[in-house]
DNA sequence: AAGACGTGGAG
DNA sequence: TCTCCAAGTCT
């Protein structure tokens, strides 16, 4: 049926060990799945759970969100991080209403065309919401493939062509099986084949894992540089936006000036937020979330 | 095609 | 405390 050597073991493992996440339930709408995928970008499941519930309760369909100003999406996003995702979700909702009659599109190209929807998210929604046959290549899958197939501890910094080709070569032929296999290998990376301390004893494909068989050699190459945060523009942007989020209406410039004492950096961060459409400078000199 | 882009929990 | 990292995307 396919050349995937551990499909059966992986599927069985998933059957027995998958988390009961709300966006995986059979009654989850395509919209709710899209929302979950955007929220989960670079953000842990535990923090997404409550945000996802609140979001869907307020905006059960794309049209509900599209009917509100983008600033409300940013406010609702709260402290999930990367607030441009809220803007993208709002813009996606508008596009879905305008171009797709209010229904989340089902094909990869249509999904990929939505703002904030890249290769991973388009494949994930097409697969998880619509049962399409697409290779899922997120950080979990990339790590599993790096270990099981390539025999190294960590995947390359950025996704490569060969990783995509490997993932596609492993895809079960049947679309429904492929969709299930996609979540399964992702779940394996999230629960067992983790970044720091993989639980190889619990791994259904341990006997075929190239990295384990090689004695789990440590990562070879330059250290994976951690992202700095303290003192960066990102931190300033975060503080600036928090003031606007926590305020009912427009705020005077003084309130923004108070969050950071270095004026050059502060102005640069504010200008960038305005350029990104996350902050709306008003004629009276005050600032607000976009209306 | 490196680097920017938030936030908070775990070890 | 400090580093790492969590279902990426965009420029």
TrEMBL record:
List the top taxonomic levels of the source: Bacteria, Bacillati, Actinomycetota, Actinomycetes, Streptosporangiales
EC identifiers of the protein: 3.2.2.31
User: Which PANTHER family does this UniProt record tie to the protein?
Assistant: ADENINE DNA GLYCOSYLASE
Catalytic activity, per the record?
Hydrolyzes free adenine bases from 7,8-dihydro-8-oxoguanine:adenine mismatched double-stranded DNA, leaving an apurinic site
Q: Could you tell me what this protein is called?
A: Adenine DNA glycosylase
GO annotation, biological process: base-excision repair; mismatch repair
Q: Which residues form the HhH-GPD domain?
A: 39-191
Q: What SMART domains does the record tag this protein with?
A: ENDO3c, FES
Q: Which cofactor does it need?
A: [4Fe-4S] cluster
Which Pfam families does the protein's record reference? EndIII_4Fe-2S, HHH, HhH-GPD
**Keyword Cell inner membrane included in the entry's annotation:** no
Question: What are the alphabetically sorted keywords of the record?
Answer: 4Fe-4S, DNA damage, DNA repair, Glycosidase, Hydrolase, Iron, Iron-sulfur, Metal-binding
Residues of the signal peptide: none
Molecular function (GO) terms for this protein are:
4 iron, 4 sulfur cluster binding; 8-oxo-7,8-dihydroguanine DNA N-glycosylase activity; adenine/guanine mispair binding; metal ion binding; oxidized purine DNA binding; purine-specific mismatch base pair DNA N-glycosylase activity
Family, as annotated? Belongs to the Nth/MutY family.
Entry's CDD domains? ENDO3c
């Amino acid at each position: 049926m396919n050349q995937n050597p551990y499909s059966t073991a992986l599927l069985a493992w998933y059957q027995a060990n998958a988390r009961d996440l709300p966006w995986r339930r059979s009654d989850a709408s395509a919209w709710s799945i899209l929302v979950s995928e955007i929220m989960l970008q670079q953000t842990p499941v535990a923090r997404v759970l409550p945000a996802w519930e609140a979001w869907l309760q307020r905006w059960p369909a794309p049209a509900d969100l599209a009917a509100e100003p983008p600033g409300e999406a940013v406010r609702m996003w709260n402290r999930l991080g990367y607030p441009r995702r809220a803007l993208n979700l709002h813009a996606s909702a508008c596009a879905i209403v305008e171009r797709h009659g209010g229904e989340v599109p089902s094909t990869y190209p249509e999904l990929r065309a939505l703002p904030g929807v890249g290769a991973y998210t388009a494949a994930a929604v097409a697969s998880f919401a619509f049962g399409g046959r697409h290779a899922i290549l997120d950080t979990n899958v990339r790590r599993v493939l790096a270990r099981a197939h390539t025999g190294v501890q960590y995947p390359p910094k950025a996704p490569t062509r060969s990783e995509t080709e490997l993932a596609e070569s492993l895809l079960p032929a049947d679309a429904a099986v492929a969709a299930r296999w996609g979540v399964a290998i992702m779940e394996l990376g999230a629960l067992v084949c983790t970044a720091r301390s993989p639980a190889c004893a619990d791994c259904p494909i341990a006997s075929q894992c190239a990295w384990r068989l090689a004695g789990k050699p440590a990562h070879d190459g330059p250290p994976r540089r951690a992202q700095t945060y303290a003192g960066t523009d990102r931190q300033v942007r975060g503080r600036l936006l928090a003031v606007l989020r926590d305020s009912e209406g427009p705020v005077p410039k003084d309130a923004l000036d108070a969050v950071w004492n270095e004026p050059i950096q502060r102005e640069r961060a504010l200008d960038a937020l305005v350029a990104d459409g996350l902050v709306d400078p008003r004629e009276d000199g005050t600032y607000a979330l976009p209306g």
